[in-house]
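Lay summary. Proteins are chains of building blocks that fold into shapes, and those shapes determine what they do. In this project we predict the shape from the chain. Here is one chain we studied, written as its sequence of building blocks.
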Amino acid sequence: TGAISSLQRQMEIQESELRRIRSEKEVLQKQLRERELQLQAMSDKYCSMTEEQKREEIVVMMEEENRNLHQILNEQESQLAEQSKLIGELQVTINQMRAELVNTRLHLLEEKQAQKEIQNQADVLQHKALQTRVALEQITCKFERYRNKIIQATFSVEGSQEPPGELTDNEVLEAMQKIINERTEFQQMLKNKGSK
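And here is the predicted shape, written in a compact code that computers can read:
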């Protein structure tokens, strides 16, 4: 946004400069027209003089005026050439700045779109993380119930002692394996004796 504002300010400055130069050009052209009117007025003035005076005065005045007009014309042509060149350069600069402004806006639009996609992905991941947490809590709860059932089944057997404290998973498995082994041996004994 800052880059766009900066480009817009530069464009406004360049366009203001272009307007100022065009205004100066109009002033110079107006001055040239005024000179031409002055020359016409002088011409009219000399019409009332005698022929000889007219010729002499006209020749002198016209030579002087021609020199002045040529000098003014040369200066104005030079200024107009410089201003035309500057106008062309300013126009090129304004076009470049407009192109940069369009590119900057396009870039910002692409970044906004990318940010939106990233936010959507983040929302999806957050939702999946929540689902995973809920599933993990359910599994943990089921595991704890299953573990408690194993402990209860293992230590409710006749002759088994209550555990002294909190049991580790390995201790629970060892106790369960011991009961399974004992029951297997007992079953084998019964088979050997022929009992059902």
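What the prediction tells us: The chain has a mean pLDDT of 83.
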